[in-house]
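INFO  loader      accepted 1 record
INFO  loader      residues=352
INFO  predictor   begin
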Amino acid sequence: MSLRIGITVVPTGPGAVTLVREAEALGVDAVWVPEFWAGDAFTPLAHLAAHTERIRLGTAIAQLGARSPAMLTMTAQSLQRLAGDRVVLGIGTSGPQVMEGWHGVRFDRPVTRTRETIEIIRTITAGERLVHDGALHPLPLPDGQGRPIRSLLPPRHLPVHVAALGPANLRLTGEVADGWIGTGVIPEHATTFTDRLAEGARSAGRSLADLELSTAVSLEFTEDDDVAVAAAVRRHAGGYAFTIGAMGSATTNFYNDAFARQGYGAEVEAVAARWRAGDREGAAALVPDRFGSHTNLLGTDETVTGRLRAYRAAGIGSLRVGLAGDPERDLDRQLADLARLLDLVGARDADP
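INFO  predictor   done
INFO  writer      dumping tokens
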């Protein structure tokens, strides 16, 4: 199995466009644009589509609830028609803090919301009249004046990848999605996720091989020096303090639950408690080094190659790589690091 390399980019200036164009020339498979409490994911991808020809264009992730399922589909279809069949619609439910604090949408029944959204996407893109007997999205509204409508666009498959961390959503992803968007995955514990994905796939009469499995990693090459490697590991581990402490409420944090299922429940709770107490530096210091070293590509060529092998062994087929620095300032270094990584992937794929 070859390993696809994509890059995660937050386009904020012309340097990002140059980065993506050069990445495409190097052979990078995809560019992924996130969506959070800043810019949306689709507008930057449309801009990048106009400056590229081959590279896949993925949302990682478009937040469910921020748009109606039909509007989400229309937006993705518009981009798909402009860019050709290069679009991957990555979706996810986000969390209660963002949905209720930013979008004003109740965070409830996330698995049901995901399932119904995908069902509606499939109906629209298949060219069928939109009739959906859903708990969250009954269409047409049963007490309204609407009627079943068919899209005026010709039918065309739209790949849907789902960001899922919990068991139920993982099973749903395996059942109905084209791919999985993972985060914070330690390859040595990847069965925490892939076993549930496989269960869902089997329930639909298919296998894990029918899904594209991806996860996010940061890339940082260091000198062949124990001190330099340790510093990079500690820096990236400490960065998880925000994820653990702030990316969720006191009762709902999907990232923390996922780390707990990978065997780090006590460590995560200690970090979260320190963060809630207002001690940000103390929280960062408590994050295990393994979070930095084993969820990223850090260190020497040899170390990075070892981690690439670990992802491959875990069944991960695609990496969403975050490059150090800013393309407006660090473009040359980012491209050099990317070329170096692609060389290592090529060498790894040649291994017996």
